[in-house]
Amino acid sequence: MTILRDLEKLAGWHRISIIFLLSGITGNLASAIFLPYRAEVGPAGSQFGLLACLFVELFQSWQILEKPWKAFLNLFGIVLFLFVCGLLPWIDNIAHIFGFLSGLLLSFAFLPYITFGTVDKYRKRVMIIVSLLVFVGLFASLVVWLYVYPINWHWIEYLTCLPFTSKFCEKYDLDQVLH
């Protein structure tokens, strides 16, 4: 909760709410495509979208920080820990991955950026346009995969529940038949 408050103070609640909501929608959409009939808990995609905001903020202020590698390793450790937790049942790593990707793209587009000169302003504008276009392409391809071309990759289930024992991921699917 303190991370979200600090991000809101840094970038404004309008920008952070856009990143939070769109990352969550993208993560849940990807989860519905790749892992249908699975119930998941928590706002995984949204939280990873905010973690991506922290990475983007770190990269944009890399030269200003005294020990940027320390901050990077701290953030990377948090993401790695949460991804390993996603190997347990009911926690969705697909939403984590796609929420992080969309949060990364949206953060490059919406977070404030310190510019030095006209070349830097031009580079930022190009980065905003490219990030938004890639995000729209990612979201559109997920919508197409959901409605037009269903995906049935069984190996992807191991990204979200690794069967440490023979019954570890049992009873994880929901009934596909409505009663």
Automatic annotation (TrEMBL):
<dbReference type="InterPro" id="IPR022764">
    <property type="entry name" value="Peptidase_S54_rhomboid_dom"/>
</dbReference>
<dbReference type="Pfam" id="PF01694">
    <property type="entry name" value="Rhomboid"/>
</dbReference>
<feature type="transmembrane region" description="Helical">
    <location>
        <begin position="41"/>
        <end position="59"/>
    </location>
</feature>
<dbReference type="GO" id="GO:0042058">
    <property type="term" value="P:regulation of epidermal growth factor receptor signaling pathway"/>
</dbReference>
<keyword id="KW-0256">Endoplasmic reticulum</keyword>
<dbReference type="GO" id="GO:0005789">
    <property type="term" value="C:endoplasmic reticulum membrane"/>
</dbReference>
<dbReference type="InterPro" id="IPR051512">
    <property type="entry name" value="Inactive_Rhomboid"/>
</dbReference>
<feature type="transmembrane region" description="Helical">
    <location>
        <begin position="97"/>
        <end position="114"/>
    </location>
</feature>
<dbReference type="GO" id="GO:0004252">
    <property type="term" value="F:serine-type endopeptidase activity"/>
</dbReference>
<comment type="similarity">
    <text>Belongs to the peptidase S54 family.</text>
</comment>
<dbReference type="GO" id="GO:0050708">
    <property type="term" value="P:regulation of protein secretion"/>
</dbReference>
<feature type="transmembrane region" description="Helical">
    <location>
        <begin position="71"/>
        <end position="91"/>
    </location>
</feature>
<feature type="domain" description="Peptidase S54 rhomboid">
    <location>
        <begin position="3"/>
        <end position="111"/>
    </location>
</feature>
<keyword id="KW-0812">Transmembrane</keyword>
<keyword id="KW-1133">Transmembrane helix</keyword>
<keyword id="KW-0472">Membrane</keyword>
<feature type="transmembrane region" description="Helical">
    <location>
        <begin position="126"/>
        <end position="148"/>
    </location>
</feature>
<dbReference type="InterPro" id="IPR035952">
    <property type="entry name" value="Rhomboid-like_sf"/>
</dbReference>
<feature type="transmembrane region" description="Helical">
    <location>
        <begin position="12"/>
        <end position="35"/>
    </location>
</feature>
<protein>
    <recommendedName>
        <fullName>Peptidase S54 rhomboid domain-containing protein</fullName>
    </recommendedName>
</protein>
